[in-house]
Structure formats: structure tokens, C-alpha cells
Design brief:
InterPro entries: Ureohydrolase (IPR006035), Ureohydrolase_dom_sf (IPR023696). Helices cover 35% and strands 17% of the residues. With 251 residues, it is of the alpha/beta class. α4 links the parallel β4 and β5 (121-127).
Length: 251
């Protein structure tokens, strides 16, 4: 089963909250069976403790290891709920969602600041938000690899990622759909040119899941309200990630 967050109040633009329902609707058209999705509605009125208790119970009772957003701020909620010792957060994202000391509210553009305490290190892959380049350098926990670096030498990037996670026991994987170039997927609130291809992303995912260290994965920022109709592509992508997780999931 997958958990879906109907939540986008961490974003300036609405629409990502519709992604879980759109996923279920698409599954009815293209799949022989209805996809089971545990939907989480608005969590903004709950305390952190209430959210954490509800998620722990839901995830444990339903053996869930994959989530659909929702905006990227849900990675904070899930990361806090599922935190483990000696773990690493790997993020695929066009943006470096790290603006230290800019807001006390957790948003999709600053959630990394608040998740740092849960992980030994954070690795961001596919960044190309060049107007804010260098901001992450103030924190030694954050390793950023741009989409340009991936394009120039993907095998070297893979080597670096392997080295970064070598001594890590567990990986939380977070995939922001805007990591993809808009030519391949443009149903996102904040698209940026110069992204990675779908094949490059799938290649990375096979290798990361292949480490057998991934204990949870979220897929966020699909916005059905903008761009082309990418609902079937999104459905296929989620299905692909679910298959990889089922083959390699750790307890």
C-alpha cells in the first residue's frame, strides 16, 4: 500500500495536493486493479506530535514504505516520524530547498533546514537553481551535485554517491518531480530548464535501491493543475519505484 498526502500548504502554488487522487483515478484507467492508497488529508491543524502518532500507526499497521505528495514539506513530517540512526537523506530536486533562518514555518522551499537533525548527511542530486547557488556551502552536512555535473560525467557522480553512503546504514529517498527536465515532465509548480532525463533518473534509482539501504521513499511535487497531462507518466513512475522498493526494501 502507498500513503498519499493531500497537502500543498507548504507551497506558494496550489495543486500538488491533487496528485494522490489523480494517481488513483489513472490507475482505474490503466490498471486491472484499483490501487490501494491510504489518504492523509490536511495536517496543518494538527500538532507535530499528533501527526507523528497518526503516521507511525498508519505506516506500521499497513506496512507502508512509499508515499506520494503533496508538496516537498511532507518530507520533513515523514523524516521526523521515521528517523533512524546512521541514516542519510538523498533528494532528487531541481532546487536546493535550504534557506537557513528565513522562516520558522516549514515549507517546500526550506524543509532541508529542519530535517538536518534527522540524518548524518543530505545529498541533493539534479540541482540547477543557479540564482541561489552556494547557499548550501554553509552546512557541511549537505552535498549538492548539479544536473550539469550529472550530464558531464554520470559515472563519476555515481561513484561519489556510493562513497557518500558507504558507511551509512539506512537511506531515506525523496524524489521531487521537478528534477526532470520540463521536456520530459512539466506538471510541476516550479519547472527549471536543464534537468536530467527520465532514463537518467531511472538509472540512478535502480542503483540506489540496489544498495538495499532504502527504508522509505517519497515522490512529491507532481501538480496535475499545470503543464501537460502527465498523469499516466506519473502513474508509471510511481509503479516503477514501488517495484524497486518491494525488491530491495529493508525493515
Amino acid at each position: 500500500m502507498i500513503i498519499g498526502f493531500k497537502y500543498d500548504k507548504g507551497s506558494k502554488l496550489p495543486g500538488a495536493s491533487l496528485a494522490p487522487v489523480k494517481y488513483v483515478e489513472t490507475s482505474q484507467v490503466y490498471s486491472n486493479k484499483l490501487e490501494k492508497l491510504l489518504l492523509i488529508d490536511d495536517i496543518s491543524n494538527l500538532s507535530d506530535e499528533e501527526v507523528e502518532d497518526e503516521l507511525k500507526c498508519s505506516i506500521r499497521n499497513n506496512n507502508i514504505s512509499l508515499a506520494i505528495g503533496g508538496d516537498h514539506s511532507i518530507s520533513y513530517v515523514l523524516g521526523k516520524t521515521l528517523r533512524r540512526k546512521n541514516s542519510c537523506l538523498i533528494i532528487f530536486d531541481a532546487h536546493i530547498d535550504y534557506f537557513p533562518n528565513c522562516s520558522k514555518k516549514i515549507k517546500n522551499w526550506n524543509f532541508i533546514e529542519y530535517t538536518l537533525e534527522f540524518y548524518e548527511k543530505v545529498i541533493v542530486l539534479g540541482s540547477r537553481n543557479y540564482e541561489f547557488k552556494g547557499r548550501e556551502g554553509s552546512n557541511s552536512k549537505i552535498k549538492v551535485i548539479s544536473s550539469h555535473e550529472i550530464f558531464e560525467n554520470i559515472e563519476e557522480v555515481i561513484k561519489v554517491v556510493y562513497e557518500e553512503v558507504e558507511g551509512i546504514q539506512s537511506i531515506y529517498l525523496s524524489i521531487d518531480m521537478d528534477v526532470l527536465d520540463p521536456a520530459f515532465f512539466n506538471s510541476v509548480s516550479y519547472p527549471l530548464i536543464g534537468g536530467i532525463t527520465m532514463n537518467e533518473l531511472l538509472y540512478f534509482l535502480r542503483l540506489i535501491f540496489g544498495t538495499k539501504k532504502v527504508y522509505f521513499c517519497d515522490i512529491v511535487e507532481y501538480n496535475p493543475m499545470v503543464g501537460d497531462d502527465n498523469s499516466y507518466y506519473f502513474y508509471q513512475f510511481v509503479y516503477y519505484c514501488r517495484m524497486l522498493m518491494e525488491k530491495s526494501h529493508i525493515e
